[in-house]
Specification:
By secondary structure, this protein is mainly α. The protein is 91% helix and 0% strand. It has helices spanning 2-25, 28-55. The two termini are 15 Å apart.
Length: 57
């Protein structure tokens, strides 16, 4: 579970960094990286939900 939480934090950090670059400097490549990070974050959050539900049973 700890490894999963670390991965989620890393993806959030990557997303924030690249989304800010896109918004502030109109960096199109950073926008692509932000979208990629958001997709990976979605997968990790779904995994977290499953693990969390299993742990609460």
């Amino acid at each position: 579970m700890q490894k999963l939480l670390t991965s989620i934090k890393e993806q959030i950090s990557l997303f924030e960094e690249n989304a800010a670059l896109q918004a502030e400097k109109n960096n199109k490549a950073a926008g692509g990286r932000a979208r990629k990070a958001s997709l990976e974050l979605e997968k990790l959050l779904k995994t977290f939900r499953k693990v969390s539900l299993d742990a609460s049973r």
